[in-house]
Amino acid sequence: MEKEAIIQVKDLTSEHGDNLILDNVSFDVFRKEILVIAGSSGCGKSTLLRHMVGLDIPVSGKILINGIDITSCDEAAFLSVLKKIGILFQSSALLGSMTIADNVALPILEYSGLPESFIQDIVRMKLCMVDLAGYEDYFPSELSGGMKKRAGLARALALNPEILFLDEPSAGLDPIVSAEIDELILHINKSIGTTIIIVTHELESIFHVAQRVVMLDKKTKGIIAEGTPEHLKNHSGIPFVRQFFNRTK
Amino acid sequence: MKKPEQLSSPLYDISEKENGEITIHLKERIDIYKSASILKNLTLLIKTKSPFSMTIDLAGVTYLDDYGALLLFKLKNLITAKKGGFNIINADTRANKTLSMVDPDSYRRPVADKGKNPANIFVHLGKSTIETASNLRFLISFFGSVVISMVHVLFHPKSLRIDDTLLCMKKTGVDALPIVGLISFLLGLIMAFVSSIQLQDFGANIYVASLVALVMVFELGPIMTAIIVSGRSGSAFAAEIGSMKISEEIDALFTMGFNPTLFLAVPKIVALIIVVPILTFFSDIFAIAGGLVVGVLMLDLTPTSYMSQTLETLTLFDVLWGMFKSSIFAVLIASVGCLRGFQAHGDAASVGNAATSAVVSGIFLIILFDSIFAVIRCYW
Ligand SMILES: Nc1ncnc2c1ncn2[C@@H]1O[C@H](COP(=O)(O)OP(=O)(O)O)[C@@H](O)[C@H]1O
Ligand SMILES: [Mg+2]
Fold first, then answer.
1. Largest CB tally within 10 Å, which of A3, A97, A123, B122?
2. Claim to verify: residue B98 and residue B220 sit in the same structural domain
3. Domains in chain B: how many in total?
4. Is B139 a member of any domain?
């Protein structure tokens, strides 16, 4: 794999009010890799993700996606970046006033110019991919949490983005579906070379899908470890990291 | 071989054999952004030429995703519908895998289709009757639970969530004072103006004071205050409770053993019962001040004569009657706001609807009850 950085996070510092959440975080995401951002609950993983997709502006630092600094670029450049990324939010964030099919079709209608019947088929395929075939006409409020998550994933995948951000994709899913999602992530990564950034602390899926793990820590408010999951599990010099990956106290 | 110029495109090359066999050489990325124009061009080509057979050459393709694959399927369907042949050549393993995954026919649903809704007028009629009936039931049971909770609070004052009540009083009362004061002042001003046009002709300037005082204290003070509070706070109650409802917060309260009415509605109702009469009283004062300004500046009345005329016109009972009415309005505003919130279900739009209908029904109830009060007063 060629090591070309598609996302560069440089000296990112983030605060919520007066609370320092992330302090001088820097790392790269390489093209076509699957990167997991791990860490204990509340350490700022979602916050980091929100910065990486330009939802929150950091106190200081830069985030470059394809070489464009999304913390300071103009509207048009930012829009071009947004077209290339897909995001699955922790709370799914489906639009409640639309059916599942319309939710997935929304970005496709906006950007593709394809005819209606084509879009219907694509939407059906995307929903089938996440095991939601037949639920096209359901509203989000009529689905379970796990189903909403999968519908959100289908929407994130709608435009076949170059970069996919997933915030806890398998939280709230049963083991079988969650394994299927892992397979899906691997498949997407392999077949169309999508760069995937996953926030999760599910060890099983980390070991299954992650090519590299960046681990955040609540105390130091930064990255305490980085590497393959096997390396962190067996050879990390930091006891906390070994505990995390071995599930011990 | 010849090349049809009119249908070539930068996205692909076309070669055509004498026997009507067309080969499309696709190039580079076939993705969501290219699919639309390729589909449009080739559909046109197939329609105009009705080729005997079409071959898609993927040799030059570097990237093919499910959009591209579905595109090829659509073309295949078009051709086979015209009894033409279709094949794909030079697909690498990755393209083959994508193609094999994309078979729209295998996605012909329905697995978990919802019960279809036949457009039958009787079904609709029955449905809306049932809906109305259950709404009515909910309304009655809600007001029942409000009454029970209020009585409960009366006998167990400790069960009132006092902090919430105080906060709510601040938000609905103190924060509303500037707007209530301003609007009432202007109303007093307007009324004094308009009435003076008539009364001046009779030299009865002094009765401007009586008129402003009576109209404001009897009617407009309570009504305007109630309408402002309904718009400010009734809608806020509905939105707050509605969004708690759709995010299951109310269910959580219920399962923890709280009575949602007692927990959420009663503090708001109590707060408004205390605050709205006070606001009404302020509204009366501001309106009289507005009248006074017009009286003194334009009608050559002295402040003393204006005030003594005002005091002569009003009795304490009138003022208290106005405040009593407004406490009833307060109950209506708060309960209807909370009711609409509790009725919200489903999505974010229902919270918006709850807020809207809280204001609409609030204002309607205010006017309705005010007419009832007017009749009572008349036959007293
Ligand atoms: N909107 C907010 N306002 C204030 N603090 C917040 C907000 N969102 C998150 N935080 C704080 O930021 C920290 C990181 O949160 P988050 O990124 O959501 O954690 P996680 O790693 O579990 O996703 C937490 O300590 C949380 O309390
Ligand atoms: Mg999170």
1. A123
2. no
3. 2
4. no
CB-defined site of ligand 1, < 6 Å: A 16-17, 19, 21, 39, 41-47
Chain A nearest C-alpha distance from B35 (Å)? 7
Q: How far is B158 from chain A (nearest CA, A)?
A: 36
Per-residue confidence (pLDDT) for residue B291, from 0 to 100 = 93
CATH no. for A1-84+163-172+193-249: 3.40.50.300
**Would the pLDDT of B287 be above 90?**
yes
- pLDDT above 50: residue B2: no
How long a stretch of residues is chain B? Answer: 380
% pLDDT > 90, chain A: 26
Range of the domain at B72: 5-102
Same-domain check for residues B89 and B223: no
- B250 and B155 together in one domain: yes
The residue ranges of every structural domain in chain A are 1-84+163-172+193-249, 91-160
* Chain A with chain B: Cβ pairs closer than 8 A: 81
Strand partners for B87: B55
Q: In this structure, is residue B203 part of a structural domain? A: yes
Torsion sign across C-alpha atoms B263, B266, B268, B270? negative
In three-state secondary structure terms, A217 is strand
- The region that residue B286 occupies, defined by phi over 0 for left and psi between -120 and 50 for alpha, beta otherwise, is alpha
Per-residue model confidence as pLDDT tens digits over B337-372: 999 999 998 788 899 999 999 999 999 999 999 999
How many other C-beta atoms can be found within 10 angstroms of the C-beta atom of residue A191?
17
> What is the average pLDDT across A212-236?
89
Q: Give the mean model confidence (pLDDT) for residues A160-186.
A: 86
CB-CB: which of B65, B106, B346 is closest to A141? B346
Predicted TM-score of the model (pTM): 0.76
Distances (CA, A) of B122 to A162, B127, B129, B230: 52, 8, 10, 38
Using a CB-CB cut-off of 8 Å, the residues of chain B touching A126 are 66
B295 and B177, same structural domain? yes
Q: Which of B74, B106, B111 is opposite residue A134, by nearest beta carbon?
A: B111
